[in-house]
Every structure is written in C-alpha cells, then in structure tokens.
Amino acid sequence: MALSRLLETAISRPILTTSLAITLAYASIKYYHQRSNDSSKPISVNYHFTRHCNYQCGFCFHTETSSRQLPSQDWQHGLHLLKQAGMLKLNFAGGEPFLYPKTLSAMCRYAKDVLNLESVSIVSNGSKITERWIRENAKYVDIIAVSCDSFNPETNIAIGRGTSGENVTFLRRVASWCAQYGIKFKMNTVVCSLNWDEDMANHIVALAPFRWKVFQCLLVTGENENEERKRDARKLLVSDEQWKVFCERHGHLECFVPESNEMMKSSYLILDEDMCFLDKGDGEETRSESILKVGVREAMKQVRFDREAFVKRGGVYEWGREEESGCGSESGLLMEELEF
Ligand code: SF4
Q: Could you give a GO molecular-function term held by this entry (predicted)?
C-alpha cells in the first residue's frame, strides 16, 4: 500500500492512527537501540598481552613500561567477556608475542576452540617465529602479520628493527611458512623519515601479502613524544607531503592499505597487558579500568572508539583464512567491506 493511502486510511480511523504512531515509535526505539548496541560491540580487538620486545624501533608507541602478564585464568575470563560482548576477531600483539610461544599457542587455541572466533591473528616482528610453532598451531591462526619497514638491511638497523639486518630474511621465511601451512600472510610497514622515499613495490609483489598495512609514523603522548620516554619518535616523523608521495608510489598495489595519523587515532580497540583499553588518540594516552573489574561495556565507555573511522579504514574485511588474494595474485579479489 502506498504511504499516502496508508496515511489517509489511518487519519480517517483514529484507532488506526494510534496504532500507526505506536508502531512507528516502537520501530524508532528499536532502530536507535540496535545502533547504540552496535557501536558498543568490540567487534575487533587488539590484545597486547605483553610489552616485552627484543627490538628497539625508534617510533614504537607501545613501549616496555611494564613487564606484567596476566595468569591464564584471568586472560581466559577476559577473552570470554569480550566474546560475550560481541568480539568476532582477535589480534594478538605486543611487544613481541612470540617471545612467549607457549602462552601465545594457548591463547590462539582458546580463541578458536573454546570461543570459536571468526578470526585469530598475530602481529610479530618475525624474529622468533619457528616453523614448528606454525606447523603445530596453524589450525588456530587465520592471519600472521610481520612488521618490516624496508628491504634495505641498513635502514631496518637504523630504525631499530634488529641489529644485523636480518628482518627481511625473517619476513620471507614467515611468508613461505604461511603459504605452506595455509595461513594468510600480511605485512605491516611504518613510513618514517628513513624509508619514505623507498620503492618497495617489486618486493611486495614477490612476497604477495593479502594485505599490506602502511602506517604513518605516529607520536603518542606518554609513549614516544620526547626524550623522557622510552622512545623519542620526533626525528622519524614524516610530513603529510612525504606520506602522500609514498602512498602515490605504491597505491597501484591491490593489497596496499594506507593509514594516515588521522585514520589511526581512535579507530583501534587496544587492550593492554592488564586488559585495560587504551586511547592513543590526541593528547595524553588514556587508559580505562580493566574489563576484569568493570566489564567490557563500562571499560569501552572510558575511552574513545570511533566505529565510523574503524569501518572507513577497512577494519572489517575478509578475515577468515579461506579467501585467497594478494599483491602477487593476478586475479586478486577485492577485500569485502561489511556494513554495520
Ligand atoms: S617490534 Fe618494534 S614497534 Fe613492535 S613492539 Fe617491538 S620495538 Fe615496538
């Protein structure tokens, strides 16, 4: 029935007018209720369960300010709460997660076998990953991302990613193990003053990551903004113009996913070693109370999380392990963006 006819009928019959008003009011309340529920769901969470790292990257913004790690009953409880609150994807990060291979293995197994999450991923500097670990844990991991900022060993050393220029060797090794054991391989790069003019396109095509995340070097107050912190990233910053030049040089690559400083701020849900959410946006870094103490919803309210920016930066994509595509694939599929 056309809307005008429906209205005419409703106006001529007062009882129908009242029913229509009630129905519309109910639909509006339900719509806004769903929207607010959606924005409070931790769909994709980055759990930095350790701050300990064997590298000293000059721009690091999650530095070793504590050596704490939660006992297994606590992290299991925390991950369970997140799943109940709507988590679909979990990314383990550090520090360097592979400094604790047994803990990492237990976490991945719990996330897949017990929580049945859609996607489990790990971000690593690649130096401590072994073939044995991958072989034994492949079915619990969908994605492994390795961070590497240059294909020039001297540049990686100058940045602080290792001391002997071995970073690229590790990167290639992990890429081949991922291909062998059916895990999606991803690469992360931070664009800084030491690598912004490098052309990495041919190397990326040869490695064929399904996603190449490229970040603009970021200052985070309390982590890397001056000489009093563990890192001082000021000398490594790039101008917007240098960032643009790097992006234009690599923009033709299908797997290329750039993230400027503006896109990064507040578009990640970062959980630290105590299961507190961190806000690394503008100004001083802020920290929520632990989800173990106040629950997920309350802890999320204590930090900014911009769901729109999360979706805009491509935070939701084909994150399971079945779909294949990549920079080296001639028929690479476009990453599908889901709607919330
Ligand atoms: S690999 Fe570098 S950026 Fe990553 S945690 Fe270690 S020092 Fe920080």
A: metal ion binding
